[in-house]
Amino acid sequence: MQQPTFTTPEQRRRAVAWAVALTTGTPLAPQRYERHLLALYQEGTLTIEEVVDLLNLSVFQVLYHSRAVGPASIAQLEALLEWSRGFNAEHQITGLLLYSEGRYVQALEGAEVDVRALFGRIQRDTRHEQVVTIYEGPGPQRRFADWRMGFGQVAAPAVDQVLGALQASEPGPVLAVEDPHLQSLVEAFGYPLS
C-alpha cells in the first residue's frame, strides 16, 4: 500500500496533529525527542523517512527519582555502584546516579528493552520507594556514554531545584547549577544553564 505524501506544510501539520491526537493518553504518545522530530517534519526540514531513520538510531532514556527507605552508607553505595557498573557494561547501558540525603536521582540510557528491564527491576527494589518517572522515551544520542554508571553525592537544595525544573511541563528560567553532575543531568534533558 502506498503511503500518503504530504507536500505542503498544512498537510504535514494536519497529519501530525491527527497522529498526536490519536495517540494522546496512550504509551504511543510522542515524547519530547519525537515531538521535536515531528516539528521538523511539519516545517519540511525532515521527510517522514528521515524521522523514522533518526528514531531508529535513537537511544532509550529513563530519568527518575526516589526516596531511600533508610540512609545509605558509603559501603552500601559502593556495592550498588560496583554491581551497577558490571551489569551496565554487560547490557551496554550508561547513566548517572546521584544520591542526596536519602534521595536517589538516576538517568539510564541504552537499548529500550534493556533499559526497561533494568528500570522494572529498580522499581521493585526494596531499598527505595516513591519512584517517580520524570522522563521516559527516546533521545537523539547517549548523554552519558563515558559512564557505565557515573556517581555523585549532591546537596539537597540543589537536587530540589533541578528536580523542580526537570518536572516542570515547560523549561523555566535559566538554572544556576554549580555541581558538575547536576549540570550533566540538566544539560542531558534539555534545560538551560546559566
In helices, the fraction of residues equals: 40-55%
The end-to-end span amounts to 51 Å
* Strand coverage percent: 15-25%
The CATH architecture of the largest domain is 2-Layer Sandwich
Figure out the total of helices: 7
Work out the number of β strands.
5
Shape: elongated
Q: How many domains, as an integer?
A: 2
The CATH topology of the largest domain is what? Alpha-Beta Plaits
Overall average residue pLDDT: 86
Rg on CA atoms, Å: 19 Å
List the helices and strands in order.
HHHEHEEHEEHH
Reported for the largest beta sheet, the result is: 5 strands, mixed
Q: What's the CATH C level of the largest domain?
A: Alpha Beta
Which parts are unreliable, with pLDDT below 50 for 5 consecutive residues or more?
none
Structural class: alpha+beta
Strand order of the largest sheet: 4-1-3-2-5
